[in-house]
Design a protein that fits this description.
This protein has about 190 residues and is an alpha+beta fold. It has a single domain (about 5-189), classed as Aminopeptidase, CATH 3.40.630.30. It has helices spanning about 15-25, 45-50, 55-65, 125-140, 165-170, and strands spanning about 5, 70-75, 80-90, 110-115, 145-150, 175-180, 185-189. The model has no long low-confidence stretch (mean pLDDT about 85).
């Protein structure tokens, strides 16, 4: 499968919205209103759960336009087949782990928060290509560290949206910290 990985830009909003509404959650429709806005919702999970799908969609579109919601889209034969929420760590309002290091304030750490692969396209290397594309872009842009947050234990496809530990390990990430339900993995660029 030949993939094209593109950073999300305002010109790709229609592809992003179409993917979230028509492809990404066909096997898990109850999560279809996320639009990856959860990571930016200032009130955390409590506030996010009060919002409607349309409010999340509108907030995501505005955040994309102002370059506060970033990530990477995977295309195969001109069709969107995957999404990776990856961004400057400081742009996230909600991550499972907060640093006390000054690298975040100095814009040196990027974070990979989730992968959404089209249900019919899973287990074909799309998440790997998205992660590679994100790391390459972050390296080119002067970041020093990329973090990921895989959950512990075996997860269903839907609940493995953070990416499995094996994916991160295969791309040179190592465990930085361990918590009860997840790992913080880092790759030095």
């Amino acid at each position: 499968m030949k993939l094209l990985i593109k950073p999300l830009t305002p010109s790709l909003i229609d592809d992003f919205i179409y993917y979230f509404e028509k492809i990404a959650f066909t096997d898990n429709p109850e999560w279809g209103g996320c639009y990856c806005y959860f990571h930016h919702c200032p009130g955390g999970i409590q506030e996010f759960e009060k919002q409607t799908k349309e409010e999340n969609k509108s907030a995501a579109i505005e955040s994309i336009k102002t370059r506060k919601l970033n990530g990477f889209i995977a295309y195969s034969n001109g069709k969107t087949v995957g999404w990776c929420k990856a961004d400057l760590k400081g742009n996230f309002a909600n991550l499972p782990f907060k640093d006390d290091e000054n690298l975040v304030e100095n814009n040196k750490i990027a974070a990979v928060a989730c992968f959404l692969i089209a249900p019919t396209q899973r287990r074909q290397g799309i998440a790997r290509k998205l992660l590679q594309g994100a790391c390459s872009t972050f390296n080119t842009n002067g970041y020093t560290i990329v973090e990921g947050y895989p959950r512990k234990g075996k997860q269903s496809d839907a609940h493995s949206y953070n990416g499995p530990i094996s994916l991160y390990e295969s791309e040179g990430f190592t465990i930085y910290k361990e918590f009860e339900n997840f790992y913080v993995m880092r790759k030095i660029l």
